[in-house]
Amino acid sequence: MAPATLSAIAAPLRAYGAVVLEGYEEPHAEVMALVWGPRFDREHALRLLERRPGYVPQVLHDVQKAADLFDRMADAERDRLRSLIQRHRSLLSGCDNRPATH
After folding, report:
1. Cα gap 88→28, rounded to integer Å
2. Of 88, 90, 101, which is closest to residue 10 (Cα–Cα)?
3. Which helix (H) or strand (E) covers residue 12, if one does?
4. What's the confidence (pLDDT) of residue 83?
5. What is the DSSP string of 24-85?
6. CA distance readout (Å), 69 to 10, 22, 80, 81
7. pLDDT at position 90
8. Residue 92: which of 32, 26, 30 has the closest Cα?
9. What pLDDT score was predicted for residue 98?
């Protein structure tokens, strides 16, 4: 996966993820739900964003761009992205004995 593609897909999550995913017991599971299938789950993304109505207009365009990039990725690249998300979860969980909260 090209670093630029990964950065573009991760940009909305880095910018707004803490607010959008706040309150979820397993935020990484919510992110994985977006990229688990062969296409980005836009409906799930909208449900996440609707919890924070003030963020929808700001984030929707960036999420759409990330979704389009994900949909154009090769299967191997999608698998790599999923692995990186899982790795991030493991690294955060390993910092202490509490579940990851971001």
Report:
1. 8
2. 88
3. helix 3-20
4. 93
5. -S-HHHHHHHHHSSSS--HHHHHHHHHTSGGGHHHHHHHHHHHHHHHHHS-HHHHHHHHHHH
6. 11, 25, 14, 12
7. 80
8. 26
9. 47
Sign (positive or negative) of CA dihedral 79, 87, 51, 67: negative
pTM for the whole thing? 0.79
Give the start-end residues of each E strand in the chain.
Answer: none
Which pair of structure tokens corresponds to residue 21? 């995913």
Per-residue pLDDT of the chain (102 residues; tens, 9 = 90+): 677 788 888 888 888 888 889 999 999 899 999 999 999 999 999 999 988 888 777 788 889 999 999 999 999 999 999 999 999 878 777 654 444 444
Six-digit token pair at 94?
């390993």
Token digits of residue 33: 């739900």
CB atoms within 10 A of CB 81: 19
CB 99 within 8 A of CB 93: yes
Tokens 């979704």 locate to 67
